[in-house]
TrEMBL record:
Homology family: Belongs to the ABC transporter superfamily.
Organism: Crossiella cryophila
Record Gene3D superfamilies: P-loop containing nucleotide triphosphate hydrolases (3.40.50.300)
Xref: InterPro entries: AAA+_ATPase, ABC_transp_ATP-bind, ABC_transporter-like_ATP-bd, ABC_transporter-like_CS, Oligopep_ABC_C, P-loop_NTPase
ABC transporter domain residues: 5-248
GO MF annotations in UniProt: ATP binding; ATP hydrolysis activity
Keyword Transport: yes
Name the record gives this protein: Peptide/nickel transport system ATP-binding protein
Superkingdom field: Bacteria
């Protein structure tokens, strides 16, 4: 199957005020297939949002390429406008994403007007609201965002994306600002949209529990790189990378507390970039490959559909 969206050797570097180069995304291969939900997980500051913005064309890569349906992403105004009909963003905070002075109707119709979509506007707005679970849709036409609950506001944001009939949604922490009771409803909606519309999604999150419930595949990101990727059930039931294991441990009774903070992206450690915080190295489990962990860099994962892991210990040969 040809990927719907592909990132190849993607890097996004920024120049800091003191002249140092921050490697926010530092070599990423990632694919999202049609009708597939992929979760991109990792702690704050690991590069998830920068990667998502680059996949949307909001950031220009320093190196590498983003392709959609096999064609490189165009960076002209006309090319990006056509691309964003197919790939829509859902933001974390629906309150911030909606103009408080616009009615629900105007918020959903805005994209239709920008892209000059033919057809009856009111019918398209009503259809999008209905698909997003706001029924009867006409009841919400004259409603303002402050009159809605958090879950309803997020549904309006999703309706605005659906109005353009995209192939792919990029959702950045789509339920992080919602009450626990509402999160399941929004996740169920995303799964229903995938089933009904064959809609693909890249869900950016720090929550592995969310990834377990919604994703087909999961990519774990640390300090600008994917360190483990594969089918969600394999990665989350048998994690091979110590970082993935630490993230998963918070769902159990004995969470692993990582030492220190994630390194500054202007000073990426040599060798395995996780080695200064690696529990396996600290406890001696990784002793057979400790020197490699500290000094030998790991290759960038290919982004294939099978499970891959960037860890010297996980890929070390078993000695009998």
């Amino acid at each position: 199957m040809s990927p719907l969206l592909r990132a190849e050797d993607l890097a996004v570097h920024f120049r800091s005020r003191n002249g140092a180069t921050a490697r926010a995304v530092d070599g990423v291969n990632l694919t999202v297939n049609a009708g597939e939900i992929t979760a991109l997980v990792g702690e704050s500051g690991c590069g998830k949002t920068t990667l998502a913005r680059t996949l949307l064309g909001l950031e220009r890569p320093t190196r590498g390429q983003v392709s959609f349906e096999g064609r490189p992403l165009p960076y002209s105004t006309k090319g990006l406008r056509a691309y964003r009909r197919q790939v829509q963003l859902i933001l974390q905070d629906p309150t911030g994403a909606l103009n408080p002075r616009q009615t629900v109707y105007e918020a959903v119709a805005e994209g239709l007007r920008i892209h000059r979509t033919p057809g009856n506007e009111a019918d398209q707005v009503a259809d999008a609201l209905s698909r997003a679970g706001l029924r009867p849709p006409e009841r919400f036409f004259r409603t303002f965002p402050h009159e809605l609950s958090g879950g309803q506001r997020q549904r309006v944001v999703i309706a605005g994306a659906l109005a353009l009939h995209p192939r792919l949604l990029i959702a950045d922490e789509p339920v992080a600002s919602l009450d626990a009771s509402v999160r399941g409803e929004i996740l169920a909606l995303l799964l229903k949209l995938r089933a009904d519309l064959d809609l693909a999604a890249l869900v950016v999150t720090h929550d592995l529990g969310l990834a377990w419930n919604i994703a087909d595949r999961v990519a774990v990101m640390y300090l600008g790189r994917i360190v483990e990727v594969g089918p969600v059930e394999q990665v989350l039931t048998h994690p091979q990378h110590p970082y993935t294991q630490a993230l998963l441990s918070v769902l159990g009774e004995t969470p692993t507390v990582l030492t220190g903070e994630a390194p500054d992206p202007t000073r990426v450690p040599g060798g395995c970039r996780f080695h200064p915080r690696c529990p396996a190295l600290a406890t001696g489990i990784a002793d057979p490959v400790a020197e490699s962990c500290r000094r030998r860099d790991l290759p960038i994962l290919t982004g294939a559909t099978d499970i891959e892991v960037a860890c010297h210990l996980a890929t070390a040969p078993v000695r009998g």
